[in-house]
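During the reporting period the student researcher (J.K.) took over the structure-prediction task from the postdoctoral fellow and processed the backlog of single-chain submissions. One of the processed entries is reproduced below for the supervisory committee.
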Amino acid sequence: MIKLTDLLENDILKPRRSPEERQKNYKIAIQKRIQKYIKDGGKGSLDLRGSPVEKLPDNLQVGGDLFLENTPIRELSDNLQVGGGLFLHNTSIKELPNNLKVGGNLGLTNASIKELPNNLKVGRNLLLGNTPLSKKYSIGEIRSMIEEKGGYVKRTIMI
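J.K. obtained the following structure tokens:
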């Protein structure tokens, strides 16, 4: 009679893929999801929370919300446009691209954002809690910076 412990101890039962191979396949699946989203016309939201996404394609247009919280992404693509909210909480992004347009909220809580881009347009709220910006400037100073750079934000919130 074969016992389960014998199978495990003798390496008879081995995973089919190594952790590295599974991670590589997951990254490929995420890239395919993004490509399909673009092919389908960028309608609705794109949820990449917690995924290993490191870069987005240039000129990406998202009709709904774009969720990038808790990802290793370090920069956003040029000419990014988001019809809904853009959520970058807990990311390592230090700066946003010029001419960024977000129709809803721009969530940067716990992000490494150090400066705001030229022509930043946010249709609703700019959430800056626990960022280098929120520690260095007041709400009024941040609003002035945005307006001086040709941008618009309905309301700035620092928690």
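The committee noted the following: The first strand starts at residue 46 and ends at 47.
J.K. will present the remaining backlog at the next meeting.
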